[in-house]
Amino acid sequence: MNIIRVKDQIEGGQVGAQVFQDALNNQAHVFGLATGSTPISIYDTIVKSDMDFSDKISINLDEYKGISGEHEQSYRYFMQKHLFDVKPFATSYVPNGLNPDGMSESGRYDKILEQYPRDLQILGLGQNGHIGFNEPGTSFQSTTHEVDLTESTIEANARFFSDKNDVPRQAYSMGIKSIMGAKQILMAAYGENKAAAVKAMIEGPVTEDVPASILQKHDNVIVILDAGSASQL
Ligand code: GLP
To answer: Does the beta carbon of 38 lie inside 6 Å of ligand 1?
Structure first.
């Protein structure tokens, strides 16, 4: 893993946006995108740049199940607001949270992933070591699937909802095998509340108990860390 230490999330955004620029320079066509607070500074930097994605494809990691793309807390809405409204892609795929049938939605998304191999996948890190919505214990062989969110993830995401009871209990997520299929992975983590997960991801055994530890087995990973998230290394 290529670990890059930065002063703060702003500098992390500049470093991350440069990874996007390098990918564009190398003819990358398909970008795997993520939500959460972590990638926001990367998207902010991209929005202010002259990068152009209008003939590119984006595929998002995950989406809550049971809410529509117009819901303010949906990941589709997040992507519109933070990136797509200013930097549109030719096509942007996000799982359809309103499809009640997990098998059909997962199958549909896996076909998209097969059709468009990702050149770059951006990732955030859950405090329990999750990537996408792949909670601890998820098989490393998993493809797109329906997920029951853990209490800790519901808790961590409750800050975005007016009431914790409004946080969806389920989601659709690319699986771990799907994530590992990207040619290059860009992971960022900031703050001391991620320090234990960062240590387990980088120095711990590769185990399904820590989904992000699988990244040790990928040959092209960039990890952006600040002092807080790197404090246990
Ligand atoms: C959510 C998302 C993940 C994200 C994680 C961390 O659970 N499904 O993709 O990486 O939260 O979020 P944050 O970047 O806000 O810390």
So the answer is: yes
Residues 6+ apart with CB under 8 A from 150: 128, 135, 136
ipTM score here?
0.94
Asked if residue 42 is part of any domain, the answer here is yes
Among 168, 142, 214, 209, smallest CA distance to 74 is for 168
Spacing, Cα 139 to ligand 1 middle (Å): 19
pLDDT tens figures, 78-132: 999 999 999 999 999 999 999 999 999 999 999 999 999 999 999 999 999 999 9
Which range of residues forms the domain containing residue 84?
A: 2-225
Distance CA 174, CA 131 (A): 9
Q: Which of 63, 105, 135, 226 is catalytic?
A: 135
Q: Look at residue 190 and tell me if it is in a domain.
A: yes
Distances (CA, A) of 53 to 18, 85, 86, 117: 14, 12, 10, 16
Instruction: Tell me, using a 6 A CB cutoff, whether residue 132 lines ligand 1.
Output: yes
Non-local CB neighbours of 204 within 8 Å, separated by 6+ positions: 210, 213
Examine residue 172 and state whether it is found in any structural domain, yes or no: yes
User: In the chain, how many domains are there?
Assistant: 1
Task: Tell me, yes or no, whether 232 lies in a domain.
Answer: no
Look up 128 and say whether it is catalytic.
yes
| CATH code assigned at 91 | 3.40.50.1360
Global pTM?
0.96
